[in-house]
Amino acid sequence: MRVALVHDWLTGMRGGEKVLELLCERYPEADIFTLFHVPGSVSPTIERHRITTSSLQKLPFAKTKYRSYLPLYPTAIEQFDLDRYDLVLSISTCAAKSVVVPGRARHICYCNAPMRYAWDQFDAYFGPGRVGPFKSRWMYGPILRRLARWDVATASRVGRFIANSRNIAGRIRRYYNREAAIVYPPVDTAFYHPDTTPPGQHFLMVSALVPYKRIELAIEACRRVGARLRIIGTGPDRARLEQQANGPSTALGASHVDFIGYATDEEIRDEYRRALAVLLPGEEDFGIVPVEAQACGRPVVAFARGGALETVVPGETGAFFDELTADSMVDALQQVAATRFDPERLRANAQRFSREHHEEAMRGVIHDTLQRPAGTTW
User: Fold this and answer.
1) Cβ neighbours of residue 331 under 8 Å, at least 6 residues apart?
2) Bridge partners (DSSP) listed for residue 284
3) Is residue 375 part of a domain?
4) Residue 128 sits in the same domain as residue 219
5) Are 259 and 290 contained in the same domain?
6) Which residues, in sequence order, are bridge partners of residue 279?
7) Does 316 score more than 60 pLDDT?
8) Helices (H), the chain
9) Fewest C-beta in 10 Å: which of 163, 238, 256, 362?
10) What order of strands is seen across the sheet that includes strand 51-53?
11) Is residue 110 domain-shared with residue 212, that is, in the same domain?
């Protein structure tokens, strides 16, 4: 059986890439197709496979500005030739699910989210406050509406959807009118574990520096409570966030935020262990960071929407805030700072999302799908 693995882009090891990595272990002879690939940005397990990129790879600044080519994604993803494959497994946050597969092939899509730019995160990326009223309404608005129609029309190319959470299964039902099996992403709970490090008095974020993560909210909330915030991650919003962090002074000085940038997995694990709590101020599709933090015995402060509702137990493994305001988040920060959490309870909750549970569930869904006739859609 010839297997193709399709991914939107390979530019770093995030949740979708962790799913891809385990599929690469399961199918060591599989070929990988992706819109963009930055060599060395993903694990050796992935890099060992034959990787075919789209025509967009040759465009200027493709390695760093790949999201700028969003209107070209439909044409590029449909150009991949998958005629010789019997099983196509796509890991999609944007366009990968829309590949064209032969009639005899089974196509299973592990959906991290329907195209968020077109559905849930337009304002965060292309709203008037980001690009200006004219561009938002007259340029990006029509482009994203067209992409949304294409996204819906190509959902029929998927034989079976797997959602990374109940949250995403609901969106698949709402946007595509399709049901989805639910398989949570893999978290390496063997690697992420507590040690004897006592927690500090600072908060931590591990995040891409992009608009929908709402990092500016965490910066402001920590400023108000006089707490230091450490931020691990890179992204296009760094300059804007640094400017905000260097705003009004606090008891800690002109800036209460440390921008760490890139960190290794070992460094991130150490940061989890030293933090008072890990912050998740934006709505996540699933959110692996909160689970990694709990596996290290640290609580989470999260916005009470999206995947966090499935991974955080209020009062036992963290605290929620209900409104996207600094005032609401401040209340949650104060609550978690005043609560004593049981590291063993935190870790036990994280174990529900282990690599072993993910692999077992994926194996069952794939086996069940292969027993159905080719072309079956459900």
Assistant:
1) 321
2) 306
3) no
4) no
5) yes
6) 301
7) yes
8) 15-26, 44-47, 73-78, 122-126, 128-131, 133-134, 141-153, 166-176, 215-225, 238-245, 265-274, 288-295, 308-311, 326-337, 343-350, 355-370
9) 238
10) 51-53, 31-37, 3-10, 87-92, 106-111, 160-163, 180-182
11) no
Q: Give the pLDDT band (50/70/90) at residue 342.
A: very high
Query: What is the CATH classification number for the domain harbouring 134?
Result: 3.40.50
Q: What is the pLDDT of residue 255?
A: 63
Same domain, 141 and 236: no
d(CA 16, CA 72): 21
193: in domain:
no
For β-strands 87-92 and 3-10, DSSP reports them as parallel
The residues, any chain, with a CB within 8 Å of residue 85's CB and separated by 6 or more, are 2, 3, 4, 31, 101, 102, 105
The residue type found at 206 is V
* Structural contact between residues 29 and 56, judged by C-beta atoms closer than 8 angstroms: no
Pairing of strands 87-92, 106-111: parallel
Token pair for residue 341?
A: 């959490």
Q: Does residue 166 sit in the same domain as residue 88?
A: yes
Same domain, 53 and 172: yes
Structure tokens at 115: 């195209």
CB proximity list for 176: less than 8 A, separation 6 or greater: 114, 152, 155, 161
Question: Which domain, by its residues, includes 28?
Answer: 3-186+355-370
User: Residue 87 pairs with which residues in a beta bridge?
Assistant: 3, 106
